[in-house]
Structures are given as structure tokens and as C-alpha cells.
Amino acid sequence: MKKLLENNRNLEIIKGIIGLILGILILANPQTALMAMATYVGLLALIVGVVLILWALSKKKGSWQWRLSQGVINALLGLLIISYPDVTASLLIFIMGLWITFLGIFQLTATLKLRDKIPGQQLSLTSGILSVLVGALLMFNPFEGAVLGTLILGAYALFYGLVRFYVAWKMS
């Protein structure tokens, strides 16, 4: 049990560091962060598409046509995202809002289920509720508030990082 808590503590510290770094970077320049996120998503889709195309053409057995079509769709989607990062940024904010909402629901469920075993339960509950609220805000206002959403995302990342550090501290 001690080893499990130590591993979880180290994981919480890592999540805290990542949250703080992302929060600071996003808050330092939200417009650039937003366009960078959209561009990286486009590059990732393009790279995955090219890899799938090459893999499908080199194997040509099994469901290679399916992989080829996936590759073509990914590559085209990647090119589209890179070409129109502003539209992608708005959609990305919506997707992030959806992700943060699910993260909050999961955190609330885990906190309530493991009430007696989680140190800093009040803070974990607060973080879960805040995650659901921030996620909903981002989902329902993605197009007009992309930069505001990025600022909210940066503030959330800072808060998340601090909560993870607090939980790790309580585990020791």
C-alpha cells in the first residue's frame, strides 16, 4: 500500500508540474497558444494520415483499404486544419470543454466513491465541480470566446496543477 501511495504521489507531482507549466505558457500569450494548439492538432492528423497511407500501401493485406481510407481522411483533415487554424481553434475549444467536463465528472465520481481514502477531499470535490463548470462554459461558447476560453483553460491548468501538488503533499 505504501508503494502504491508513493507511485500515486509521484504521478500527482508530475500532473501538477505539467498543469503549472501549461497554465503559465497559455496565460503568457493566449492567442499564440490557441493557434499553436490548433496547428499541432493539424500536424498530428497529417502525420498520422501519412503514416497510415504508407503502412496500408506497404502491407496490402487484411483491411489495408480501410487503413488507406483512414490515412487519406486524416491527411486531408490535417491539411484543412493547418490551412484554417482559426476555425479549428474554435472547435478545439469546444472539444477541450467536452474533455474537461468528462474529466470533472470522473473526478467527482472518484472522489465521492473513495471518500474515505482520498486526502484533500474538499479540494478534489471543488476541482471536480470547477472542471464541470469550466468545461460547460467552453462547450457552450466556443466560437465567440476562443481567446477567453484559452485564458480560462490557462487558469484552469494552473488551478489543476496546484490541486495535484496539494493532493501529493497530503499523500506524504
TrEMBL record:
Source organism, top-level taxon: Bacteria
One Pfam family from the record: DUF308
GO cellular component terms attached to this protein's record: plasma membrane
Bilayer-crossing regions: 12-28, 34-56, 68-85, 91-111, 123-140, 146-167
Keyword Magnesium recorded: no
Keywords, ordered alphabetically: Membrane, Transmembrane, Transmembrane helix
Keyword Transmembrane assigned: yes
InterPro entries: Acid_resist_chaperone_HdeD, DUF308_memb
Name of the protein described by the UniProt record: DUF308 domain-containing protein
Lineage, uppermost ranks: Bacteria, Pseudomonadati, Bacteroidota, Bacteroidia, Marinilabiliales
